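can u do me a favor
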């Protein structure tokens, strides 16, 4: 797992690690102000980049770009997501041209989910087709990140199919990957080992989800296929409505997970902030980043 004989990470590997943050576009004036305060606090961590999500079917397209530009105006490297499902080649081409016109050189390419009630998947069925289109339209202009699923995509028919889908994205031109969040480190290492065994050598950065609310975490996890190990579920459930205890336990759980991933040689960490600053900041500081 790229660790040295004593289990520590080589200095050369540590020096190249990237620590990044993810946000979503705010939809109300109050949310905009709240994100500005969050951004000011998290900017002190000096992340390698801040990614900004792109709503289903491009529903937050303008909000994504506006948020990216505001981050960049504050001196932060900001990276827009681009989801293709429900979109046409022409609309995606327009987004790429818009991003290029602002000098954006890095994006996260995803399939995404269709908006509720929509049946037209558009011109792209898979993220690999989007990556292929990005390369055909823009060459090497963009550094392209794609998604990876250590516990397998919820729609994958088998682990083999899931690995094949990931490889197609890399073969299409992806430079690196960010995983769905997980709480079972073995799932990550098994996935990385499978990728390396299949000849896929791109960096695969673990996604990290701080825990603020067990009910919200359970809802997110059920929707995206992320497993909450039984011991974590039971521990958090035992606190009931005791928010302080849930947050304290969550900080310990996620810090230990992240620390172990780094010790094993992970190429960085990507924090899903949910537009909140405190938990990510605390974990970041505990890790000594």
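np, heres the sequence
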């Amino acid at each position: 797992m790229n660790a040295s004989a004593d289990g520590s990470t080589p200095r050369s590997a540590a020096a190249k690690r990237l620590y990044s943050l993810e946000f979503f576009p705010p939809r109300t004036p109050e949310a905009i102000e709240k994100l500005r305060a969050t951004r000011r606090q998290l900017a002190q961590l000096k992340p390698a980049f801040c990614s900004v999500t792109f709503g289903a079917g491009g529903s937050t397209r303008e909000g994504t770009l506006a948020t990216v530009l505001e981050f960049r105006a504050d001196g932060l490297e900001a990276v827009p997501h681009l989801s293709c499902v429900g979109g046409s080649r022409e609309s995606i081409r327009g987004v790429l041209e818009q991003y290029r016109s602002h000098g954006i050189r890095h994006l996260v390419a995803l399939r995404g989910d269709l908006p509720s009630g929509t049946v037209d998947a558009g011109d792209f069925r898979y993220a690999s087709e989007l990556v292929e289109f990005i390369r055909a339209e823009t060459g090497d202009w963009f550094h392209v990140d794609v998604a990876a699923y250590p516990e397998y995509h919820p729609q994958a028919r088998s682990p083999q199919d899931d690995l094949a889908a990931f490889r197609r994205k890399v073969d299409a031109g992806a430079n690196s990957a960010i995983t769905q969040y997980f709480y079972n480190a073995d799932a990550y290492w098994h996935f990385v080992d499978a990728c390396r065994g299949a000849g896929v050598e791109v960096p695969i950065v673990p996604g990290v989800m701080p825990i603020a609310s067990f009910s919200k975490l359970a809802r997110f996890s059920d929707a995206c296929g992320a497993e909450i190990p039984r011991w974590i579920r039971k521990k958090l459930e035992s606190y009931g409505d005791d928010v302080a205890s849930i947050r304290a336990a969550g900080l310990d759980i996620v810090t230990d997970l992240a620390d172990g991933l780094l010790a094993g040689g992970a190429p960085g960490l990507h924090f899903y902030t949910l537009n909140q600053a405190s938990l990510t900041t605390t974990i970041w500081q505990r890790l000594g980043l």
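The beta strands are 18-23, 49-52, 78-83, 106-110, 143-148, 176-181, 204-208, 268-272. hope that helps!!
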